[in-house]
Amino acid sequence: MKLRGKAWKFGDNxxxxxxxxxxxxxxxxxKSLAEHCMEDIDKDFVKKISKGDIIVAGYNFGSGSSREHxxxxxxxxxxxxxxxxDFARIFYRNSFNMGLPxxxxxxxxxxxxxxxxxxxxxxxxxxxxxxxxxxxxxxPIPKFMQELINSGGLxxxxxxxxxI
Length: 164
Description:
Blueprint: E1 2-9, H1 16-19, H2 30-35, H3 45-48, E2 54-57, H4 69-77, E3 81-84, H5 89-98, E4 102-104, H6 106-111, E5 117-121, E6 126-129, E7 134-137, H7 143-150, H8 154-162
Parallel strand pairs: 1-2, 2-3, 3-4
Antiparallel strand pairs: 1-5, 5-6, 6-7
């Protein structure tokens, strides 16, 4: 599967309270969560992005609480993928459970600039910066994790397995 969009850059230690502030956790409505995605770090984030865009971030992305709201807010906002230098462990797993593709690549994060056009091949782990014509390698998403993503997350995958 190939994903393509503009890059939106963030630094290190972007925690779940920044991704979706705790004051909005009284709902699990994806649309409501999406409206407030990243607003404490960039109040206009959801106004600037387009469906398919990609977050590019530094170290320890998604640290903090174990709330699933964070990857849900990102995915529901229209972001297709997150590329980071590394991810907090619980966010890493929650992302796949919620159907949000994520990749780790220090080289890509260091080189990609905000609003560069990026293409990500989650089958091969190849990240292409269309703007600069550079290519980066990350580990591809394992096939069983791709099945979670293609099913829309863990719940979609379970429904598929149970034929419901």
